[in-house]
Amino acid sequence: MSTAVSTARKGGRFRRPSVIPGFGLTLGFTLTYFSLIILIPLLALAIRSAGLGPESFWQAATDARVLGSLRVSFATALIAAGVNVIFGTVIAWVLVRYRFPGRRIFDAIIDLPFALPTAVAGIALTAIYAPNGAVGALFAPLGWRIAYTPAGIVIAMIFIGLPFVVRTIQPILEEVSHEVEEASATLGASRLQTITRVILPSLTPAILTGFALAFARGVGEYGSIIFIAGNIPFVSEIAPLLIYIRLQEFNYVGATVIATVMLLLSFALLFVINLIQAWSRRRYGYGN
Amino acid sequence: MEVRVQNVRKEFDRFPALHDVSLDIRSGELIALLGPSGSGKTTLLRLIAGLEMPTQGKIFFGDTDASEKTVQERNIGFVFQHYALFRHMTILENISFGLKVRPRSSRPPAGEIRRRALELLDLVQLSGLEKRYPSQLSGGQRQRVALARALAIEPAVLLLDEPFGALDAQVRRELRKWLREIHDRTGHTTVFVTHDQEEALELSDRLCVMSQGKIEQVGTPDTVYDHPTSPFVFGFIGESSTLPVTVENGELWVGGRAIGIPAGDASPGEARLFFRPHDVDLIEADASLAGVVSTARRVGGTRRVELEIGGAGHLVEVDLPFDHPAGEKTRLAFRPRRWKLFPAG
Question: Which of A139, A214, B215, B252 has the most CB atoms at less than 10 Å from its CB?
Fold first, then answer.
């Protein structure tokens, strides 16, 4: 009896009573795993760059080429995630709502960017979007170059980010019951009103998650982009490439600084997106 | 508003869900579409709503042909079994949705919309909950919100698809009474679908009993219960017992014995006798239905026994007073007080 009481007390306020056993075990495992896989490597990175001293860290971080590459990386990733959200939602809509021949094959193809080696994707995209490629040739007479410009980077990021958006929205869209749409119609709402006032608001949390995932994937992408980007400093050189270049120059400190800055920026952005998402989940009636 | 369904036929992928159905719904009445699942009752309701289009036939609202109109143009109120509330909107926003989506020319001013929504919230007895979200309400409360939302657009017809199907028995009984009150107060022509005969009998002015895509009988609860026009209706509405009989010499015979029931104008040959288990007299006479009790169980205030009639082992149910001493193997003789004869088959 007394042992039962003391364990209960030892659990303190963190322990939630639950019928599912193993809280201590699973939490312990989670923390260990999390530390080994994520926290320790990131901490090492932070310590390494902290050893530099604030002044030289600032100097290295505000180097013009570094700033240029960060701007290219984050701007293109944001644009690509934005484009992906729009078209990913449309694709998810089509896959969920309509039955057409080849739907399953189409559905399976969506995942291919997950599986394809990124270098293969990069080379294929370059071949197509280069001025003498199948698609690039269409735009070349207009004076638009896609490959070897930031536009190429955006294209590559769209390619690799699309499945994230489609796969997060698809299940939620399946859950939005058909009856809700019918209810909206019986109340006199037009098709457009039903989409903008009923369906899209209920998808908002999923759309934000998809955006965050696609953005994070885009910022971190390296393999496919370096082939199509042209890698011109200040124009189409992405931060991950600059890190690699610094490593090649045995400038480990420079590489760590860029990585740390990227990490902080990404974390800040994802954190903000998460906050918006939590707010919208509450706002749109999930989770209570 | 009067609704006339005229020779409507509906097929889904060549599979007929409704065969040539006609139904006149009177202005201001509360009519129940009753039937087992697959009888086409929900299809008929959705056709009236415009959520489905008939393969053949027409539907009139008053004198205007509604069959060509879209759902939006029909101005109907529809209540779904699973509420179908907008989860990202508050209760007040849900109720005022129908008014807010109207084109500018026919949309009331914002203050008026709010006033009307609050009024409806009061009508469905949920005042004070206008800022909640649907997920914060119980099932019964959600269905009331759904009804208020449907009433907000001042619908020509109110259509309810198994409105209480997802609720537990207690709440269901309460809401039934309450729906009747609301109907009497607002006077909307109301059609509701149910598979619960008790609900249909208690709530509706008239019943429309359906089976296998056809209308079996339309009438007041009394008519349908007391004068069923088909074996299906007799079996579906209320308790029933049935027995194969032979019509001969103007009398009914079971197993070579006259049972003391005149055949009326039934033609000689095989037939089926239907009666209610509670509508029988226990008698001591030769001309009666006699059998041996095979099981007996207490049902509320009566004792229901299953009798094996004659040698062929036909089982019928009969209600006895709860203090009747009959047990297993007891021999009983009875005669139905009221009955109905249908041709065999």
Answer: A214
Collect all residues of chain B within an 8 Å Cβ-Cβ radius of residue A205: none
- Bridge partners (DSSP) of residue B151 are none
pLDDT at B211: 93
Answer yes or no: is A165 within a domain.
yes
Lowest mean pLDDT among A236-240, B27-31, B322-326: B322-326
Check A285 against B149: CB less than 8 A apart: no
Domain span holding position A114? 54-284
Contact list in B for residue A186 (CB cut-off 8 A) is: 49, 51, 71-72, 76-78, 150
Question: B133 vs A288: CB contact, 8 Å cut-off?
Answer: yes
Task: Provide the shortest C-alpha distance from residue A173 to chain B (in Å).
Answer: 14
Residues of B in contact with A180 (CB under 8 A): 84-86
Average pLDDT for B100-121: 92
Nearest-CA distance B113 → chain A (Å): 14
Furthest-apart CA atoms within chain B: distance in Å: 80
CA distance B295 to B232: 25
pLDDT of residue A11: 47
On whether residue A129 sits in a domain, the answer given is yes
Interface ipTM above 0.85: no
Looking at the complex, does the CB of residue A288 fall below 8 Å from at least one CB of chain B?
yes
Distance separating alpha carbons of residues A70 and A93, to the nearest angstrom:
34
Task: Tell me how far apart the alpha carbons of residues B305 and B331 are, in angstroms, rounded to a whole number.
Answer: 11
Lowest mean pLDDT among A10-14, A101-105, B11-15, B141-145: A10-14
Tell me the whole-structure pTM to 2 decimals: 0.78
Give the tokens for residue A147.
């490959």
Do the domain assignments include residue A37?
A: no
Contact B161, B32 (CB under 8 A): no
Give the CATH number, domain containing residue A148: 1.10.3720.10
Residue from B98, B82, B69, B54 nearest B160 by CA? B82
The structural domain count of chain A equals: 1
| Cα A150 to the center of its chain, rounded Å | 18
Mark the ranges of chain A whose per-residue pLDDT is less than 70: 1-17, 283-288
Share the mean pLDDT of chain B: 89
pLDDT, average across residues B81-104? 92
The answer to whether position A16 is within a domain reads: no
Q: What is the pLDDT of residue A285?
A: 59
DSSP secondary structure string for all residues of B85-144: --TTS-HHHHHHHHHHTS-GGGPPPHHHHHHHHHHHHHHTT-TT-TTS-GGGS-HHHHHH
